[in-house]
Amino acid sequence: MGTMLDSFRLDGRVALVTGATGGLGAGMAIGLAEAGADVICHDRVAPEATAERVRALGRRAATVVADLSDPAAPAALARAAEAALGPIDLLINNAGTIKRAPAAEHSDEDWDLVLAVDLSSAFRLSREIGKRLIARGAAGKIVNTCSLLSFQGGILVPSYAAAKGGLAQLTKALANEWAQHRINVNGIAPGYMATDNTAPLRADPVRSKQILDRIPAGRWGEPRDVAGTAVFLCSPASDYITGHILVVDGGWLAR
User: Fold this and answer.
1) Which of these is catalytic: 160, 192, 220, 232?
2) Does the annotation count 192 as an active-site position?
3) What's the pLDDT score for residue 2?
4) C-alpha distances in angstroms, 124 versus 6, 19, 150, 227?
5) 74 by DSSP, 3-state: which?
6) Is the alpha carbon torsion for 18, 223, 90, 97 positive or negative?
7) What sign does the CA torsion over 249, 21, 169, 244 have?
């Protein structure tokens, strides 16, 4: 019998992490490797630096490239990932984009792009990995990077709020269907994180102060804050958790 801590290990598991060049994606990829997983790192440009950090931990790593705004990309990505390191056990749908504009001026192009990358590609990639897990009769974990805007509406980001709200509901829908196949589907809703996505907010002294004043923890989150949550939701320790959106926000939603 292993100890409780052993149930957080990911040895022998193969993970695919999308949007793994930097920020939360790189943090989660490295966290999974630290817990024992082999990791396929995806982005629009090969995330070689992240893969090297995975290899430095003694794990296997591969990079795959795909533009997830293309509806055909997820199927090709799933095939490439499997060819690289073998069947996928763990999927983290982390790739995302955001477009800021007042709703009255938010273009169709921006709307379509954000929905394609942040919602539709997550469905298609989950479908590809999910059907493979079911065919293999293998247990698996899918983790979607949701957002505080899965719950709140935000301002100037109507497409992002719609996509992340949809992603939370997709998480529950897939969880309901696939629990019988021992596939857990959960989401992580990061709060305000110090990543490229939030650079404009952090650079704005007024908005930055407004945000920090409302976070009980009193600081921006770091990728490391999300990595442990990803390890937990990918590990046997979370086998009885599915259809849940775990908020990692320094207390923001509690205010």
Assistant:
1) 160
2) no
3) 79
4) 32, 15, 19, 24
5) helix
6) negative
7) negative
